[in-house]
Amino acid sequence: MNEIKDNLTEQKTWVRGLYMLMFAIFYGIAKVVLSAVIIFQFLLVLFTAETNTRLLKLGQSLSTYSYQIMMFLTFNSEYQPYPFGAWPKGEPRTKEATSIEQDD
User: Is the pTM of this model over 0.85?
Assistant: First the structure.
């Protein structure tokens, strides 16, 4: 019972909870923007038969950002994504690269 009380009064846990709430909101925003990118890219391909390279890069970085957020929210990583970390470029890194030891 004392262990539960210690966990409830641990400031580190509550700070993590606030970060989780903030990143959950960011995830929702990223999801909406990513959906818009998907629809717009589909329409471009439908009417021009070509993909937009800038949208491809944006879609990749938004997907990686969403992945980083989910890794943080599910306690698989202590790495805090943007705006506390760098904006992602390219594909997501493995679990080991996004864990506590990551210096980015």
Answer: no
